Structure formats: C-alpha cells, structure tokens
Amino acid sequence: MWSTPRLGPLVVGQALAGGRVSALARGPGQVQVTVALGDGQPVVFELVTAPAAPGPFAALPALSYRPTPAGFAAFRAVGDALASALAPHWPAITHVAWPDAIDGLGEDVAATLPLTALLSDEALARRACVAPWTRLEYGARPTIGPCCADFQVAPAAESGAPLALWHGPAMRGFRRALASADAGATCRASCPRLRGRTDTLATLVARGGPAAFRANQIAVIASILDGAERPATTPLEVVFPATSFCNYDCLMCSHGATGTLADERPPAFYAALAAIAPGLGRIEVLGGEPLASPVFRAVLAGETFAAAPQLEVALTTNGSYLTPAELARYRHVRLGHVTVSLNAATAATYQAVNRGLPWARVRPNLDALLAAHRAARNPRAITYSMVILRANLHEVEAFAALAEADDVAVRFMLPMHDRNQQSILTDAAAMDAAQAALATVAARLRARGRDREATRADGERAVLAARLARGIVRALPD
Ligand code: SF4
After folding, report:
1. N or C: which end of the chain has fewer CB within 10 A?
2. Do both 444 and 315 map to the same domain?
3. Whose CA is nearest to atom 4 of ligand 1?
4. Confidence band of 81 (pLDDT split at 50, 70, 90)
C-alpha cells in the first residue's frame, strides 16, 4: 500500500459525517480510507475489487472495516457516508495504472514507491538488468556504457555529451542484448549486477519530484517493459569522473602519481548535464579526487543542482576539500551519498597510507559532514571506506569501530594489483589475518542490524578464504 493525498472523491483532511479523513492509501486491487472519529479515534475502512463477503454498508457492500475498539454504532454513519461517496467510483477506483501511481507521488522528493507494489511478477522479471535503460556511466579509460567497464564484454570508447551517448550505438547494443535475453553479447557472466539480479524492475523504486522527473521515470519504465532500443527518455542516473587528478598519493592507487587536471570535465559537459537534469534522479561523481576539479566545485556551488530538487549527488572523495566553508557553499545540493576514502583509523596510519593532508586537517571536515547529514536526519548516507593493505591491516577492527562511533556505514575492499608492494593477497599470513578481522567486523555489524555492510564484509572475506583454500597467493585481479 502507498499513501496518496487524493482518492476519487476523497481528499485527506476532508470532513465526513462528523469524522475527518486522516489518511488515504492504495495498493493492487484495494484502497484504504482512515477516518478520525469525533473523539480522534481512527477507523480504517477497506474497499476491494472482489470482496470475499459483503460488508455492512448498504450503498457499497464491497466496503468493510478493520476490527477496532470503537463500537460499530460509533462509525456506522461515517461508513454509510463513505459508501455513498465511493459507490459511483467502484470498482474502477480499486484499479490504478502504474503510471498514475508514479505520477501520484507528486512533488515530494522524499516520496517513494517500489515497483514491486505496481507491476506483476511477470513484468518485474522481464529484464535481467535494467541498467541500459536507467544509467549512463563514463569510465576512466575512457569508455562509456550502462555500468562499470570491468563487466562489459567490449567497453566502447565513445565520447560526447550525455544525451548523444544515451542514444548512441553502445547503449543501444546493451539494450538490444538485454531485451533479447542475450546478455552475453554485451555483459560478462561475472557481472555482480547480473548475477545478483540487483538491477531489475523489482529493485527499482520510483520517487516523487517535479513533473518532468516523474514523466521521465514513467517513460523509462515503459521503455524497459517494451525493451526499447531507442527510448524517448533521458538517463535517471549519470556516473562520471570529474578528473583523474588527485591531491593525495595513496599507496594502492595510481591517480596521485598519474592523474592530471588536463582531463577535467569542462563547463560544456556540465551544461549538457544541466540540459537533462530535469529527468535525472542521481549523479555519482568519481575521480581521481572529484572535488579537486575547480570546474566541478564551481558547478556544485552554482545553480545547476539547485534547479533540480530531486537530483541527488553522490561523491567518492578523500574528504580533504570538504571543509566546513565548502560544505556551506554546497548546502543547496542534495548530497545523496558520500563515500569517504579514509583507509585508516589513526593519524599515523592515515598519513602513512594516504600521503596527503594530516588527519588533524581532515577530522574537522568529517565532523562538518556528519553535522550536515544529521541535520538532514540521514547520517547513514555517509560511508567510511578502507582498502585493506599491509600498512593498515592492523586497523581493520578499529576502522569499523570508528565508523560505528560516527554512526556511518563502513566498507572494506581488497586491493587490486600490488602497488608499492601493499597487496595483502601476496602473503598468506596477511590474508588470514584480514579474514579473521573481517569475520569479527561482520559479526559486530550483524549484531547491530547492519546486515548489508556485514554481507559485503563477508563477501571480501569469502574471496580471501577461497584463494587461501586453493593456494592462490598473488595480487588481484589474477
Ligand atoms: S548486466 Fe552487468 S554488464 Fe550488463 S548492463 Fe547490466 S550491469 Fe552492465
């Protein structure tokens, strides 16, 4: 069931035979009307398409009510009035077309509606992955596609403005493959989204927002159901690196040594992004260090995002640029998720691993970020991230404790390659120690009800365990 401010002849707040309509809700084949009686006591009335037995209201026998401490006599008049009001609209009022339900979310950007409440099981299962209809991702190489290039069979080296790429040959190829159930033509079997069925209609959640955003979501869902190769839509999500440059030189990452501001996305890119902002729900900005891009910082502080209230901005950042003053400049931006690459739980290890600003300069930035998100009552939208290396292996549990103390999510990752001889995967004892630490962390997360984070930690642990069991002691991805 999802709530709605209006239902046929009824609106929330309307007076009804001495009571007042306090809530309206609808779901597949049924509607609910909650009426606060004169003494404030709520009574929930239910109207279905096909009632199992007639209810007590003569004007509309399909109307019934939920058991309530109030005696029937206390709400009989309200029930009769409701039956008379709804009778001309039944049974049509119990049916809702999914586009109308999404449009009915209205302007409230916090309103959500999972497609599982709207579509049949057959429709929900129609595509193994919907990313080609919802996402456009610019890779670092540079490549483009609906997702990370690592999971594409032949990442395309197309470039250009988002809308041109959205309708270009690479994205059309993915749509063709996924619509014809031939995902193997474009997608590797190892793709976690494909394997885990994490990007399907069953996992999509429609959101409220301006009319153009609701209309684009409706068009996107229709294009997925149709398997359209050239949909008349714009992306719901765009992912891109703002620059390959980074002001840090982390032990495991090459951006600090090889990144350059010469590849910074120019103002023209953001102008093209602004053109599709009315239909966008989310952008995710990566790097290098995304906030090292002066152009991106200026865009964040400008009008592009203020004009699209539904648009969430997700960042993966080292946090060094998120000073309290900079955060204040971005206060109109809906920071949907900020992943902070900290990689350490103490000042000494922070310096040894990240080789950038000292911890004493970054901690106030974290505090400002936490305060901003708490003010928005959404502290879990921050994640502290650690790549487990030889240099920080001893702080895995302390890192999880730091995230717990700050009430944010925690993420652990295994290193790719063996940069600076830091991979723990080239040393069986280090792999074993990491495995044990991750097991402790996962158990603690689970005990706190943080199952998603625990599952992710277990996933990294499982990779270590499998490689140890097979005697594979060498750096990923081999
Ligand atoms: S199945 Fe994987 S590789 Fe294919 S489009 Fe979806 S996310 Fe990308």
Report:
1. C
2. yes
3. 187
4. very high
